[in-house]
Structures are given as structure tokens and as C-alpha cells.
Amino acid sequence: MGIKSAGYKLATYQSADGPRAGLVVDDQVFDAAKLTGKAAYASVIGILDDWKTAEGVLRTAAAKAAKSRIKSRTQSRPLKGTKLLAPVLWPSTIFCAGANYADHVAEMNKSHGRPPEPDPHTLGLQSWHFIKASRSLSHPGATVKISDYSKMMDWEVELAAVIGRKAKNVSQQKALSYVAGYTAANDLSARDRGRRPHVPDTSPFKADWVAHKSFDGSCPLGPWIVPASDIPDPQNLGLKLWVNDVLKQDSNTGQMIFNLAEQIAHLSSRLTLHPGDLILTGTPAGVGAGRGEFLKAGDVVKIWIERIGSLSSKMA
């Protein structure tokens, strides 16, 4: 009999030599390149570039590590005390789905005094995305400076899909096969920086998406990537967000307007998706803008996604 498959998570950890790709098996972190003997697996991007092969190699290596517990602990480090970084350093693009949960659309329309909108499917519309800068990623447990940037900083828990192979003009039926895994993201949004001052409200050039969404630290990500084979249905995952231990968002990915397969198919019809690209799939109701509440220095934001885990960030 062969080695039974073992669960693992793919992470980037801080080593004495800089960021390295790691496999989290139980409560231990193994260096991916050393465990597999493949030098290219020193980075998560290197692994994703070879995902078709790497998926099986990592699964086998994780099984061996789990089986040889005593020996393996001399080749690993405890998860507790290991500094994890954003799992993908660095994606070529971070795509973010906007207005993709019906309850969130409703709360934003209400806060802006707009009437309810019909399901965009009935209007023949496709999913709508904006882009965050790749270097806007923030590491697990990191502090994000907001006090000198925005007085209306908002939170948004989102399921993030990590692309594992080039995708161009893919069908909805095959779209999920291009996903290597999933992680958790917080799409921090500076609501008071999204509209340019001294430009008329009627101007088509009023919006400022860079200031609104792509400031430093605006995309906390992690703590790791769970392989897609361990999450067969990304449209049935609970997701929550707390600010200072007060629950603000509580929903399920099944509430998306455009599911992930639709999003991948649509994005790939416009450009090529590459290994390591991230797709943030939208956020449910419960954001600060709908409540008239915003983050301030000292606040701690914690997000949780079922089958993935938790990620915390501190505002400063």
C-alpha cells in the first residue's frame, strides 16, 4: 500500500534567510524545498508555477512528514512561534469582486439613499472587479497604519482564490480546476479617499480607486493557503469578521451573486490569469459604511473563514 494522503497547508514563513515556502502539517512547519528536494519550491510562487506536479509532490511529502513524527520534528519548526507572512509573495495581480453579495449591495444602496437593484444576472451583466496593488498585501498579525490616512477606514472579510495555472477563456464548467487553493483576505477600504476632492460629483473622473483600495497594508492575507482539493465547494463556507471581539459580519459564501466559477470565466475572457494571482470574491453585509462605524487606531480586526482559519490585524 502507498502512503495515505495527509492534509497540509501552504504558507510563507520568515526564516533566517528570508521568506521561504513552508508546509504546515499538524502543528509543525516544514521547509517545502528541503522536504521535497526541489529547489524551485523555495517560494510559494515557485510552487504555483509547477502546481500540476507540485500538488501531488507536496501531498506525498506531507504524508511522509506526518508518518515520521519523531524524525520530522528535527526537520521542522513549531507553528507556534513561527512568523507567517502573506502566503503569496508576490501575486502579479489582485482582482477584487465588487458588489458581489446581495445583502452588502442592499446596505450600501441604503447608506447612499439609492433604490434597490435587480439581480445583475437578469440584466445580462457579468461580475465586476477592481484591482489592488500587489504590494498592498499585509502579513498575518501585522499592524496597518491608518490614522494618518483615513478617518473612514472600513473592513471587508473575503474568500480569496489562488490561481494555480494559466487561465485564458476558460469555461465556467472548468474554471475551478484552475484554482490551486484558498485563503482569507480583508479588503480594507478607505471610504473617505474614494472620491477626488475639487472634482464635480457629476464628473466621470471623480472616483479614486488607488487611494480607496490600494494603500499600503490594504490587503491583509493569510494565514496560509488550503489546497483546493481540501475544499471541494468554495460556495459553502462560513465567514465572519470581528472588530475588538464584536461580531460585525456573519455570512456564507453561498450568498455570492456571481460565484467563483463565473468570476474566473469572466476575468479569463478579458486577460490571462497567472499562477499566484488572487481573486477576492466579495464581501457580505456588515461593513462599517452600512453602520456608520469605522476603524480607529488600536482596533483589532479578526476574520475567519470555515476550513481555512483566522487572520488578525491591528490598526495604528
CATH class descriptor name of the largest domain? Alpha Beta
Number of extended strands: 19
Q: Give the second-level CATH assignment, the architecture of the largest domain.
A: Alpha-Beta Complex
Largest sheet: 7 strands, mixed
Portion in beta strands: 25-35%
Mean pLDDT: 94
Helix content: 10-25%
Categorize the overall geometry. Answer: globular
CATH topology of the largest domain: Fumarylacetoacetate hydrolase, domain 2
Strands in their spatial order, largest beta sheet: 7-6-17-11-12-14-8
What would you call the structural class?
alpha+beta
Question: Helix count?
Answer: 8
How far apart are the first and last residues' alpha carbons, in Å?
Answer: 54 Å
Radius of gyration: 20 Å
Q: Low-confidence spans: pLDDT under 50, at least 5 residues?
A: 1-5
**In the CATH hierarchy, what is the superfamily of the largest domain?**
Fumarylacetoacetase-like, C-terminal domain
The multimeric state of the shown protein is single chain
How many structurally independent domains? 2
N-to-C SSE string, H for helix and E for strand: EEEHHHHEEEHEEEEEEEHEEEHEHEE
Q: Could you characterize what this model shows?
A:
- By secondary structure, the protein is α+β, with helices and mostly antiparallel strands.
- The chain has helices spanning 32-36, 44-48, 51-67, 69-72, 102-111, 209-213, 260-268, 288-291; strands spanning 9-15, 18-25, 28-31, 76-78, 84-85, 94-97, 129-132, 137-138, 143-144, 153-154, 157-163, 179-186, 189-190, 219-227, 238-243, 246-252, 278-280, 300-305, 309-315.
- The protein has a seven-stranded mixed β-sheet with strand order 7-6-17-11-12-14-8. A five-stranded antiparallel β-sheet has the order 4-3-2-1-5. Strands 9-19-18-15-16 form a five-stranded mixed β-sheet, with no helix packed on it.
- Strand 18 and strand 19 form a beta hairpin.
- The longest helix is centred in the N-terminal third of the chain and has 17 residues, at 51-67.
- The radius of gyration is 20 Å and the shape is globular.
- The termini are far apart.
- Mean pLDDT is 94; it is low at 1-5.
